[in-house]
Amino acid sequence: MSRKGKxxxxxxxxxxxxxxxxxxxxxxxxxxxxxxxEHYKKGHLLSSTFSEQIRREIGIELSQRNKxxxxxxxxxxxxxxxxxxxRKFYDLVYKWTGFGWDPTTCTVTASEDRWAExxxxxxxxxxxxxxxxxxxxxxxxxxxxSMASGSNARSSAMPPVSNNDNDEVDVSYPAMDTGNPLSxxxxxxxxATRGMR
Length: 197
Hints:
mainly alpha, 5 helices, about 35% helix, Myb/SANT-like_dom, LIMYB
């Protein structure tokens, strides 16, 4: 059975049944993100994660300010779940047309028609319409630089890339002058192709 605390944002962050999970209400989640952000600004975030020592420090700071004790495993688990949720929201807001972010409710915004279209393609993620995440902007600053970007970046919600092996690949090289005065001129290297001929 789950407990629900007062929520500053419209969120559904209920604890799991595993022993390493703990109850997190919105003030605790918000404080955890703020503490993570403070350590990020100090340069403690390495390869999109914090060391165990930094997690211990965050745990001590959290318990001093919130009077709640969490283990390093609980902090790591919560931070990972929050980052996965943030990634889903980030993909919606920045990679799909028609979605935005409401900092007051801490939720993704879109028209009902747009949500219906997206949910039809992503039925497993329909709960994102009602979930929220405090400090989305801080998470974006902390973790967006460690994400792939550009034309080859792929969201988990995007369909797989088509691999058409019949495409020709141009692998021509510039002709080289061998420096031999007896040679008849620069030699041409044949262009390679990939796929069926």
